[in-house]
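**User:** Hello, beginner here. Are you able to go through the protein record under this note? It all follows right here:
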Amino acid sequence: MIQIEDEIFLKKKFDFEKLKTIGFSFVNDKYVYSEDFMNENFKAILYVSSLGTIKGEVIDNFSNEEYMPLRIESYDGEYVYKVREAYKDILKRIADACCRDVFFACNQANRITNLIYETYGIKPDFPWKDDNGVFRHLDNNKWFSLIMYVSLDVLLKNGDSHMLNIMNVKIDEAKRDELHQIKGIYPAYHMNHRMWISIVLDETISDEKVMELVKCSFNLTK
């Protein structure tokens, strides 16, 4: 299934006050917006949570049901393409009006990025021109952390395609087994399992604990 909203709002952060100015209403702890399009044949309904996650529906106004061909990649006929592009135009307009660009997809990843800058004066760089950001020492250019955007499957090996940010940090090998017992910490993806771990940045672990592990990694990589 195509997650069009994730494509448009990746690495975007909502300004909730601006949402209100373009017609979003706050209902049941969510910001809600609806708009008819394609000559009123379809209705876009958008939901933005207080955490800044967005979900959307496109309703066929004739049947009053969700228009599922929009989400199926193999449905690439001219009419479906027009509906999909018209919906994307609505999303892009909202993103331009109500969002600012951020480094990473997940809120916690951006908070940690800000804390690293406040603590060490270091911002991530993106050597592969993708969503993977590297934090380096200013003096020796060595990595002390890496934030990636991956599916949960790379950690759990369970087929879970949910995408999120994870952070790799270096650890004291003597504490490896102890750390692996903590929910949200795994053997490092794409790095040495003995000396590095991956932390999921989905609010499972507190910012304070993540920064404690970042500090350890910073000191070990001096």
Notes: Helices lie at 4-9, 16-21, 78-98, 107-120, 153-156, 176-180, 207-220. The two ends are 44 Å apart (CA to CA).
